[in-house]
Design goal:
- The protein is mostly helical.
- It contains 9 helices and no strands.
- Helix 1 packs parallel to helix 3, helix 4 runs antiparallel to helix 5 and helix 5 packs antiparallel against helix 6.
- The longest helix is centred in the last third of the chain and has 24 residues.
Length: 194
Amino acid sequence: MSAWIRMIADEDADDTLQEVLNLARTPHGTVDNVMRVHSLRPSTMKGHVILYRAALHDDANTIPMWLQETISAYVSILNDCDYSLANHWKNAAHLIGDEDRAARIGRALHDRDPAAVFEGAELALMRYAEKLTVNPGQMEESDVTALREAGLDDGQILEANQIVGYFNYVNRLLNGLGVSTAGDVVGYYAKAEG
């Protein structure tokens, strides 16, 4: 566990915190530092878990999961958030399923040049994610219109908006409290050690 504030370990949790820690457990059975950093205020941890799962892991989402994770990674690059980038780029690369393609996409995102690897709806989503992250006060209706014109429906536009909004929130939470991946199992699809 690593952050600039105290985090409570499972063995020191009271019943209220233990209940929320159990809600926050990953498929590996662990609680990542991104959630554990809330341990002094279990209500914000509970809200965070619910928001995260609704934005990124909801069965109703129709944007392909690899693209959801790629959007997440791009927002994290734009915000210089190493924690989220480590987790969500690992997930995206796994879901892309092609090492060469993933490497090309990763380079393009780090270069802030998604047009080098994307076109159509995928490129429109990356442009939307960048503008909403870097210049949120300059968003206009035409930014949403561009997504529609690229073939996305309003539900998918909402999905993208929520993913971008969530990662802007969590990147600031992580960077603002110095949360690191120390002790975490990095990536949703990683195998737990042990």
